[in-house]
Amino acid sequence: MEETFRRSLYPELDDIDYGIIRALQVNARLPFTQIAKDLGVTEKTIRMRVQQLQDEGALSLVGIVNPVKAGFHVQAMIQVAVDAEKLDDVVAALTDTVEIRLIVLTSGEYQLFTQVLVTSNEELSQFLIKKLYKIPGISKTNVINELKILKSKYNFIR
């Protein structure tokens, strides 16, 4: 039942596409020849399908950096309430801020949800005081320090 539900979310993907995505989710460096062998198709088919999935925005092959190993020992989620008429300006300012990794438009009391990566609590404090709190249009924030990541997954298709 769960597989049927998941498949109904992406009806444009066929069994080969699902097989490719499943394989690349585990190891994005897996040779196309191996994927082709596992799926019983040609390497050219895999190469063309991967390119098509990338062109359509269904698949991105990227290296994922472990923030802690890269020196970003402090991660925080920040909810941001914004004056409605300033939303575009605030998003533009946040987008240009290097410490911010993620910006999400949300519903409810806070219009934006962001993830910030910094090297220390002192750097987080400086970011808040010297950058975030100076952006016009932000009316309120809620800073949530991430204490420990309990689950982080990139495998969406099984």
Automatic annotation (TrEMBL):
Domain HTH asnC-type: 13-73
An example Gene Ontology molecular-function term: sequence-specific DNA binding
Keywords linked to the UniProt accession: DNA-binding, Transcription, Transcription regulation
Domain of life from the UniProt record: Bacteria
InterPro entries the UniProt entry points to: AsnC-type_HTH_dom (IPR000485), Dimeric_a/b-barrel (IPR011008), HTH-Siroheme_Decarb (IPR050684), Tscrpt_reg_AsnC-like (IPR019888), Tscrpt_reg_AsnC/Lrp_C (IPR019887), Tscrpt_reg_HTH_AsnC-type_CS (IPR019885), WH-like_DNA-bd_sf (IPR036388), WH_DNA-bd_sf (IPR036390)
Pfam families: AsnC_trans_reg (PF01037), HTH_AsnC-type (PF13404)
Name of the protein described by the UniProt record: Transcriptional regulator
Organism annotation: Brevibacillus formosus
